[in-house]
Write a structure and sequence with these properties.
With 135 residues, this protein is an alpha+beta fold. It has 2 domains: 1-36, N-terminal domain of TfIIb, CATH 2.20.25; 38-133, K homology (KH) domain (GMP Synthetase, Chain A, domain 3, 2-Layer Sandwich). It has 3 helices and 6 strands; from the N terminus they run βββαββααβ. The chain has helices at 38-60, 99-113, 115-120; strands spanning 5-10, 13-17, 23-27, 64-76, 84-96, 125-133. Strand 4 (64-76) and strand 5 (84-96) form a beta hairpin. Helix 1 packs across helix 2 (99-113). The termini are far apart.
Length: 135
Amino acid sequence: MSTAKVSWTGAEEFDALLPSGHTVHFDGDRKANKGPGMMEILLGALGACTSVDVVSILQKKRQKLAALEILVNGERATEPPTIWTKIELVYRITGEVDEKAARDAIELSKGKYCSVSAMLGKAAEITYRVEIVKM
């Protein structure tokens, strides 16, 4: 079992010591904004998780990937708990990458490999778009 240790540091601020040994500072007060909010970290985690998959798959498919950027747009419920209800990922892929190879990599990430996507997909509708910039 993995364990994170969360310690209150004052106001609405907390430090989370993660199982990897890294510490993340959170701030639940969006006006003070002394650290990321808990829900926004999930958007970043989703983007990073799928990025790892897509880069790896495209490299295995011998695609000439020069850059990958993902915009992760989220919409939250209006009533508590204000969970993510809609998430759109915009994959901006630069390089000599075939669009079908990119879509296949994204689908594999979404449907098989990205655990963050699998978890968030139980609560939110996750969609994506692909933008390919040839070099």
